Amino acid sequence: TDNVxxxxxxxxVLAADLLARRDSPPHDNSAMDGFALSLADxxxxxxxxxxxxxxALAGYPYIDPVPSGMTVRITTGGGIPTGADTVxxxxxxxxxxxGGWIEVGPVVAAKLKSGENIRRCGEDVRAGTVLxxxxxxxxxxxxxxxAGQGIAALTVIRRLRxxxxxxxxxxxxxxxxxxxxxxxxxxxxxxxxxxxxxxCTVTDLGILRDDRxxxxxxxxxxxxxHDVLVTSGGVSVGxxxxxxxxxxxxxxxxxxxxxxxxxxxxxxxxxxxxxxxGLPGNPVSAMVTLxxxxxxxxxxxxxxxxxxPVRWRVSADFAFRRPPGxxxxxxxxxxxxxxxxxxxxxxxxxxxxALSSLVWADGLVELPEESAGVAHGDPVDYLPFSGLE
Length: 389
Ligand code: AMP
Ligand code: MG
Known about the structure:
By secondary structure, the protein is α/β, with parallel strands linked by helices. It has 7 helices and 28 strands. The chain has helices at residues 106-111, 140-147, 187-197, 212-225, 243-250, 283-301, 355-360; strands at 2-5, 18-19, 29-30, 34-37, 48-56, 71-74, 86-89, 94-95, 101-104, 118-119, 130-132, 153-156, 161-167, 171-172, 183-184, 201-208, 228-232, 252-256, 260-261, 267-271, 274-279, 312-316, 320-321, 327-336, 342-346, 363-367, 373-374, 379-384. β24 (327-336) and β25 (342-346) form a beta hairpin. α3 runs parallel beside α6 and α4 packs across α5 (243-250). The longest helix has 19 residues, at 283-301. Magnesium ion binds next to loops. Residues 168, 233-234, 240, 281 line the site of magnesium ion.
C-alpha cells in the first residue's frame, strides 16, 4: 500500500474500509439565508412580529439560547441556536429597515413546518459508518467525502507496474524516414494512455523485432520486474507471430483465441507471477481487447471492486449482416433524434486497422454470439468508452 495525500488520491484504489470519524454535518445548521425561530411563536391568524436579537453566521455561531418570541438572523451553514427549531427564508419575511425585527404573515406561518430549512447533524454521514469501502476507485467526490471528515491522507493500494511492448518487424518509431513496407508504430501511445488512465504505472519497453533471440530475454526481464506485461502483435498464426509461443515456452499460456471480433487471437498467460496479455497488433483489436478483457483483469489484480461495463439499450441506425458464432463489437457513436431518443451510428468501415474509427467513435455496439445481424431500428447494446475508464 501507499499513503497518499488527498491531492494525490484521485484514481487510486482504497486499501481498506474507511469509517467515518464523526457526524457530518457536525452540528444542525441552516440550509437557507433567513431567520432561526421557534415555530410555536408564530400565529396563523395574524402577522407575528419578532425582534431580531443577534446573528448566526456560517463559522460564527450564536452562543446564547434564543428566548421565546425572538429570532436571530442566520446564513446558510450557520449553526442553529438553542431555542430555535425552524428557519424561515428571508424572502418570506417582512424585514424592518434597520433589521431590528421581522414580521411573518399568517399564510407563510401556516405553511412552515417544524425543522424546515435545517440540515441535521449527521444527516449526510453518521460517525462509525463505512465512509468509503475497500477497493473503491477514488473519484473526486470520494476524496471530498474524506476531506469532509478532516482526513489528510488515505491508504491506497500501490499502483500496478505494467510493461508495454510492441512487436513487429514492420514497426518504426518517429523521427525516421519511413522505409518501404514499414509503418509507424501507434499502439504504444494508445495502450500506455489507456493503462495510465486505469491507474497503472507503465514502463514503455519500446518496439521489438519478431525474433525469438530478441523477444525471449526481453519478455523474461520484463516479467521479472512487473506485475503485468502487455504486448501487442505476434499472437496470430503467421510465421512471425512468436509472442504466444514464447509465453508458452517461458511460462504458461492459459488462453489463446476467443470467438470475438475484433481481437480473436488474444492470448493470456503467466510468466512467473507476471500476468501476460498478448494483444493483437491491429490497433482496434488491441484497444477492444484491452478495454474488455485486460481492464477487468487489471482492476481485479489492483484490488479494485469489479464493475460491469456500462451498457445502454439503443436503436440501431444501421443495418448489418454477418454469420453468427462470435461476439462482435462495432465502433459506434450515439445520435439523438428530435424526441431525444438515442440511435447508434456505426463507422463506415469495419477494418480493425482503422485508427481513425476509434477517434470518430465514442463507444462500441455489441452483437451477441447468436446474432445474425441487425436491421435498422433493432435494439442493440451500446457500451460508451467513458464507462470503460
Ligand atoms: P500482428 O498482430 O502482429 O499480426 O499485426 C496485425 C496488424 O497490426 C499488422 O498490419 C501490423 O502491421 C499492425 N500492427 C501491429 N503492431 C502495431 C503497432 N504497434 N502499431 C501499429 N500497427 C501495428
Ligand atoms: Mg506482427
